[in-house]
Design a protein that fits this description.
By secondary structure, the protein is α/β, with parallel strands linked by helices. The chain has seven helices and six strands, in the order ααααβαβαβββαβ. Binds to the 23S rRNA.
Length: 152
């Protein structure tokens, strides 16, 4: 019975393998611990002290090579794609109803960005434009020709 108990592994019997636990070398703690150079080796920057983060050995560092950030760019800025009245006359010579999807189909604008109609050019055609913004001059010219603009 006593023989069987000796075969069972106990917590107090556990210990690390020989050579598995080595103390960390504490360099730079005086001559008494590691000898003349305190475990730091021979001459050089790392012997005297650690180099700072971003140090490139005397080369002009990256943070100084890049231009300074000037100003501010809003991540919420709306950039409109512009279409002039003269372009509308060329793309839709018969007038009628024009939507953003029609402008995308004719490759005047790209899908996904808001569209604004500007007043460059004249028109005699009655356009019913839906889903776009318009400048005051464009709105006046289109309404004078018998058309209308709605933002929805």
């Amino acid at each position: 019975m006593a023989n069987e108990e000796a075969d069972i592994l106990q917590m107090h019997d556990l210990h690390p393998a020989p050579g598995a636990k080595k103390d960390r070398i504490r360099v730079g703690r005086g001559e008494g611990s590691k000898g003349k150079t305190s475990g730091r080796g021979a001459k050089g920057t790392k012997k005297r002290y650690q180099v700072r983060p971003g140090f490139e050995g005397g080369q002009l560092p990256l943070y100084m090579r890049l231009p300074k950030l000037r100003g501010f760019k809003s991540p919420f800025k709306q950039v409109y794609q512009v279409v002039n009245i003269a372009t509308l006359n060329e793309l839709f010579p018969e007038g009628g109803e024009v939507t953003v999807a029609d402008l995308v189909k004719k490759r005047a604008v790209r899908a996904g960005n808001p569209v604004k109609i500007l007043g460059d050019g004249d028109t005699k055609l009655a356009f019913t434009i839906k889903g776009v913004k318009a400048s005051a001059s464009a709105k006046a010219k289109i309404e004078a020709a018998g058309g209308s603009i709605s933002e929805n």
